[in-house]
Design goal:
- The complex is a heterodimer.
- In chain A, helix 7 links the parallel strand 8 and strand 9.
- In chain A, helix 14 packs parallel to helix 16.
- Chain A contains 17 helices and 17 strands.
- Chain A has 3 domains: about 55 residues, Orthogonal Bundle (3-methyladenine DNA Glycosylase II, Chain A, domain 3); about 250 residues, Dihydropteroate synthase-like (TIM Barrel), CATH 3.20.20; about 120 residues, Rossmann fold.
- Chain B is an alpha/beta fold.
- Chain B has a single domain, classed as Dihydropteroate synthase-like (TIM Barrel).
- Helices cover about 35% and strands about 15% of the residues of chain B.
- Chain B is built from 11 helices and 10 strands.
- Chain B has an 8-stranded parallel beta sheet with strand order 8-7-6-5-4-3-10-9. A two-stranded antiparallel ribbon of chain B has the order 1-2.
- In chain B, helix 7 runs parallel beside helix 10 and helix 10 packs parallel to helix 11.
- The radius of gyration of chain B is 19 Å and the shape is globular.
- Classes of the chains: A alpha/beta, B alpha/beta.
- At the A-B interface, strand 4, helix 8, helix 9, helix 10 and helix 11 of A face helix 7, helix 10 and helix 11 of B.
Chain lengths: ~450, ~325
Amino acid sequence: MALSGLEIFKLLPKTNCGDCGVPTCMAFAMKLAQKKAELRECPHASEEAKATLGEAGEPPIRLVKIGGANALEIGNETVMFRHEKTFVHPTGIAIELRTSEVEERILERIKEIENYTVERVGQELKTDLFFIVHDSEDKGDFLKAIKLVKQNSTKGIILDCENEGVLREGAELLKDDRPAVFLRKEVSDKDIELAKAYNLSLILTAHSLEQMLKQAEKAKSSGLNNIILNLESQNAGHQLQNSTILRRSALKRNFRPFGYPLFSRIHEKKELDLLAEASLRLCKYSSLIVIPEYDKALLYTLFTLRQNIYTDPQKPIQVDPKVYPIGEPTAESPVFVTTNFSLTYFMVSGEIENSGISAHLVIVDTEGQSVLTAWAAGKFGGEKIAKFIMDIKLGEQVKTRKIVIPGFVSQISGDLEEKLPGWEVIVGPQEASDIPSFVKSVKLT
Amino acid sequence: MNFEIPKEKNAGQVFEVTIGATSENGGTRSRTVTIGGSMSLPFLFFEGEHPHRPLVAMEVFDKVPAKLPDYLLDYFCEVIDKPGEMARKCVDEYGAELISVRLEGTHPEKGNKSAEEAVEVVKQVLKSVSVPLIITGHSHFEKINEVMKKVCEAAAGENCLINYVEKDNYKTITAACIAYKHTLVAQSPIDVNLAKQLNILLTEMNFPAERIVMDPLTGTLGYGLEYTYSIMERIRNEGLAGDRMLAFPMLVNPGYESFRVKEAWAAEKDYPQWGKAELRGAYWETATAMSLLLAGADLLIMYHPKAVEAVKKKIAELYGQKKGK
């Protein structure tokens, strides 16, 4: 049964020592009640508190960390649909490294993947983990691959090795790096002992809900917390349904054995099949996806999908307020102005590009609101735009003294001209899609 | 611990909509297609039936779009400007289950072709393929009303899916669909309430509910996909909960929207971190299509043959076929 913040507070030491990272016991109790903290973060909790709060204090889906200093955090999700609240920990993306490859090739791949980052709307997008597959005879290959990753990357590691002894040696090499271990077979007592000894997360693999339950209960009852569930289904349809059942059981029924992040390893060979499957897993509840190949276009697509799905629906993505060159503008090129809502920016810049002209696009800070919303909230009026244009000294960058504003705010044109002496305001179209025909019919400079 | 599968009961069901007509019903199609009918969230067979799998249409043009990348044009070579032949190629070689005829060339600023020319194109396509057709228009109200009236009349009895009407322009085209027995797309700008309002307006004109398909407006990957995705999930949830005015099958446009954005055509040398250009548009389209399928799409209009192949294959797997190795 869920306890209220006040009920939880009564069980805490009430010393306000701050050792849990929150200044007061009351604030910590509130966080516990909202399932944003765990009782184990309080080093002074009494046995009574532990017993009473116990599972009630845990979030419905556990937070699991993989990696050392740059650990990936997954789990702690609280909703089935992103419109209900938000998905909090973006899916981790791992790429396979196979020990059957020659050392030079492995090293080259590690470096490529490590160096691969791509920017999109102000976020730096990259892969999160390496998935090391021991698919060669020699145990030395496996340990060598681990060392190569450690030397060349700070990303976390998932180990896939069927030989227990070799796996232990690998875990020893990573004893401060909190790796995860992918189990192909049913979890054994030895796996659990190893996980405890080396602070590993275990990825449990099963082929039915019943098997998944049995293994999760076994790992959980032995005291392990860092568990990840890999339920492999016979086809995409069963997979989607099983993932939904696991997530729903954890969130709606508070069914503890399934309260862990979900894992997917993609096996498809053809690029587009691989992407289709990965897209499916990303949208529907995988917190960790392993991709067999390194392909920049495919990763960029998946990163963008991840960014879209994990965006907070209440907080629109914003672009930096500044002047953006569209095409290859010169001092003679025309000037457009709009808001810093990312979608507005994309639409307007895309349509200016489609029109075939080059232009300067002035993006004003409207706290991520779209044109009409920003105008209604007083964030996109004549004074605000004029001030920004003067602050960035636009007049020194361009020769034109005309500026195109969105058609939806035609009413601000008088005010803007007044606040921006020497400039003429042209009212553009309401819809970005009409920009190409607009630029043909109106003289912009 | 006892485990019970957490099932959710749904009071509502998505309307079943049939597109196309065979000779028995006054058309010339070799078969009709039906979409919709879902009784639970997409592909969740454990708690509700899904009698009709989502379908993939491909698109042909009365005027070749200016900006399609070469690597896409290569699949159509000499037929890209011959809508009839291109339609046949899409159906025979690339597995299109319907054909959308896009009449963008009738837009006064994009070619200003006449309504008669549009009728000719539609007739050509009707003749060259036997799958049901979608007729796709544009946002110039006056012109598209004139074009759609003539096209609806010329294709009377074929039960085409007339794509689209919107809140500020629905009466003329809806009346033509009633008169000549076509099915209709109701488009609204990524908004649950506006979508519902338009559907109510259509049914108030006595347009039959079982002939409405909703278009929630597709934002492609990286360009508003998250809005479309969430609006569709909300619409489908409401429809299944029993709101009949939101319980229509949904149409999305991953092809048109994906091949308009920079990611589909920018060269690798200009954007080295975006990777090889050759399949990037197809990747973009596939990711958009897959995510929107999960959000409730019943009909997808797509462009790249490889993306069509991958998405159709995944739909079949979602309907239970085992994975091919």
